[in-house]
Design goal:
Elements: H1 3-10, H2 13-20, H3 24-29, H4 36-45, H5 54-61
Helix pairs in contact: 1-2
Pfam families: P22_Cro
InterPro entries: Lambda_DNA-bd_dom_sf
Protein name: Cro/CI family transcriptional regulator
Length: about 60
């Protein structure tokens, strides 16, 4: 999941952070990809409108 897509969904980086219960600087620290655990949380929070990237999950496990 691209960070830019998650921000676009919530409107701002701060609103994205609030939805996850984390700080805005934590979101700012992410690279272009949402960390996998947070991506799964966002998929659940958005009822699947945002999708965690399964390919990244298998890459993270390797």
């Amino acid at each position: 999941m691209k960070k830019s897509d998650a921000i676009a969904y919530f409107g701002t980086q701060k609103k994205l952070a609030d939805a996850l219960g984390i700080s805005q600087p934590a979101v700012a620290y992410w690279g272009e990809e949402v960390p996998q655990l947070q991506a799964y949380r966002l998929e659940k929070i958005t009822n699947g409108k945002l999708k965690a990237d399964e390919d990244l999950a298998s890459h993270d496990a390797a």
